[in-house]
Amino acid sequence: MTHTANFVAADLGASSGRLMVGAWNGRAFLLDELHRFPNSGIRVSGSLHWDVLRMWAEIQHGLAKYRTRFADAPAAIGVDAWGVDFALLDQRGRLLGNPYHYRDARTDGVPEIVFQQIDPRELFRWTGVQTMQINTIFQLYSMAHTADPQLKIADTLLMIPDLFHYFLCCARAVEHSEATTTQMYSPTNGWARAVLDTLEMPVHMLPKVVFPGTQLGPVRPEILRDAGFSSTFPVVAVASHDTASAVAAIPNMDETSAFISSGTWSLMGVELREPITSERAFSLGFTNEGGADGSILLVKNMTGLWILQECQRQWSSGGHAHTWTDITAMAASAKAFECVLDVDAIDFRAPENMPRAMAAYCRRTMQPQPQTIGAVARCFFESLALKYRSVLESLETLTERRLKTIRIVGGGCLNALLCQMTADACNRTVVSGPAEASAFGNVMLQAVATGHLSNIGAGRAAIAASIQCVPYFPQRTEDWDEAYARMEHTHTHV
Question: At which of 242, 261, 282 does a domain end?
Fold first, then answer.
């Protein structure tokens, strides 16, 4: 089937959400923003929550906007969002309170308690997921450990995008890529019930797991009525973890390609058919997450544009407001390789003043301190590119592959200076795009689920026809080799 169709992607992020329309013309997608809204955690009685009912109202508002713009109902709708956070429903399907935000303090110290009962390496071998205290397993354990009364009446656990699928069509299921972020799920064996039994955690509320491209059911009649639709349309479980949707949208991914999803965080990895849960993968800090089409994403999560975003905020509060274009231009003109940072150092987790934190790090590591905005920005861009090189080398070691191309998606792919530096630092060809990867992956998987595209390979080809990817070729790699050696020496002696 190749006839035209519109697909609605609800693409939810931790700071904003939007509804996008992906118009399919039989050859390519045209992606257009339908509705955007701010999103953030809400603090209530000392705890940090998500206001999911407001988010749900925004999704409904977006659907009403769709109805005013288009004569016919969309061909489908799907939701993607972040991982690890969840909601609880009672037996009648009623929401039990606002879900907690992953930054809530209830998981402070919880991993240490859990690891008194189960070895962290064993947990990694079971689930393929690296330990972070924000993970679902530690959130849920904190509730069990404190005898939270919600658990006594909870009947179903749903991840955040699955909650909105439930609101749309009543389906109680968790999509596979989201399940793999919980650290409670084995990509090859399903829910890790033996682990949860060992920790005396509830397992009865864990629903069935469905794979990307599953049609969950038709949109509820009352939602259609409120938005003004005269006919229904299906709800599709896309690759609901936004990273999985983003990677699904990358054209020409193959065994010689690595990907980087570049934003506030950077996620760098490869597509595999089976997870890697070796001691080496554990020690290097890699995690295994579900991808589209049954794939596994072997991923390293690292600090991304957060450091420079915080610098920009600090400069603005001090009366020196600069756009990203301004900052990048100043970085391009600054002196190269004055200092290098470990972008994942604890110094940069949440300092009150990020430029001062960078200067203090340089003093501590006996490096020159960047004195100008351009020098600070250049130091950051070079350090992030060098971090990518380190992760690339680890990926090649773990997979025994020669990775020839790095494919960058997300907002960071629009920064030509960072893309060129990544090509130079890694001595690899870099291809940037699409920037709107998670939304593209979302609508593409809907098109596969509804028969408008035959498979994900055809979907990636359609996305390639929809966008203009930009290649960057390595230059001046000798200077980067010297900087990389200095970075390794500096980090070793911090």
Answer: 242
Q: What is the pLDDT of residues 323-377, one digit of tens each?
A: 999 999 999 999 999 999 999 998 997 789 999 999 999 999 999 999 999 999 9
Handedness of CA 237, 242, 244, 250 (dihedral sign): positive
The amino acid present at 33, given as its one-letter code, is E
CA angle 350, 356, 361 (to 5 degrees): 85
User: Are 270 and 386 contained in the same domain?
Assistant: yes
Q: Find the catalytic residue in 242, 254, 347, 479.
A: 242
Does a structural domain hold residue 444?
A: no
- Please tell me what DSSP assigns to residue 144: H
pLDDT at position 262 over 80? yes
Q: How far apart are CA 240 and CA 210, in angstroms?
A: 11
Find, among 262, 283, 257, 260, the residue nearest to 272 by Cα. Answer: 257
**Residue 226, in any domain of the structure:** yes
* CATH classification at residue 342: 3.30.420.40
Q: What is the pTM of this model?
A: 0.92
pLDDT for 493 equals: 56
Structural domain count, the chain: 2
Q: Is residue 442 part of a domain?
A: no
Question: Token pair 């350090």 is at which residue?
Answer: 383
Residues 95 and 15 in one domain: yes
Same-domain check for residues 212 and 260: no
- The pLDDT of residue 486 is 87
Asked whether the CA dihedral 368, 373, 376, 381 is positive or negative, the reply is negative
Same domain, 264 and 228: no
132 and 88 co-located in one domain: yes
pLDDT digits (tens, 9 = 90+) for 186-236: 988 899 999 999 999 999 999 999 999 999 999 999 999 999 999 999 999
Residues 6+ apart with CB under 8 A from 379: 338, 339, 340, 341, 358, 370
Cβ within 8 Å of residue 493, ≥6 positions away: 365
Residue 188: predicted pLDDT: 84
The amino acid present at 405, given as its one-letter code, is T
> Considering only CA atoms, which of 418, 427, 434 is closest in space to residue 479?
427
Domain boundary among 184, 209, 242: 242
Look up the domain containing 114 and give its range. Answer: 5-242
Cα 216 from Cα 261, distance rounded (Å): 28
What is 426-448 written as a DSSP string? HTSEEEE--TTHHHHHHHHHHHH
The one-letter code for the residue type at 283 is S
Is-catalytic flag, 242? Answer: yes
Q: Is residue 171 part of a domain?
A: yes
